[in-house]
Specification:
Elements (H helix, E strand, L loop, with lengths): L1 H12 L9 E2 L3 E2 L2 E2 L5 H5 L16 E7 L3 H12 L4 H10 L3 H13 L10 E6 L2 E2 L11 H19 L3 E5 L1 H11 L7 H7 L3 E3 L2 E6 L8 H8 L7
Parallel strand pairs: 4-5, 4-7, 7-9
Antiparallel strand pairs: 1-2, 3-6, 8-9
Length: about 230
Amino acid sequence: MKKELYDKFLKELRNCKECINLQRKGNKDCSLINIYGDNEFCKNIPSIWTDWFNRLNSEIIIIGQDWGPYSDMKSLNELYMLNPSKDNWKYLIEQEKSHTKKQLEYYIRESSNNRYSLDNIFITNAIMCARKGTNYRGDNINLKQSTNNCSEYLVKQIAIVNPKVIVTLGYYPILSLSKSYNFEIGKNLKETILKYPEIKVNNYIIIPLYHPVAQIKKSEQIKQYNRIWKYI
């Protein structure tokens, strides 16, 4: 049932045009690429970040900021389609060696005493389209506007998965959820984590976290990750 609902959700996403022509002052191009026009493309990107439909029964959702460049997603898709097998999918996922993924995997395993890994978790982002260009810099995307544009889709995605715990990485994901579910947060991420370390919304527990590669002591990061497992 969840897969049918998610297929319907992806079809809805393909019609969204909110961010395809975004520009900032000075005519800086901050538009995004909607990756959902081709259903087979958006489902066949072998990355730990985009394996949505195989993890719909997860008890945990991790919400990051955005997917990054379309060029990276396209390259992964092309490599997978050369040999569309489970073994190749697994191989390509294992080749993803980003520092963000490495640190996130470490915090999940360490805090859960190796009971959980990223393989067990549904991972999505506050912004669901992809960046133009080839870099992850903040100045090629209008973070606030695109986050606001995508908030209704994020809530629909959460409703389909229906997790016990929602983990947010960085400020924009928790900002999006606070507006959608109407709860208070701090004026910045540090204040939010200190004042609202666990937020109860409907049947969900929302736990705001720093980005895995933020300059924060590992002990402080682990302290916040430990909160997840009380509910799992």
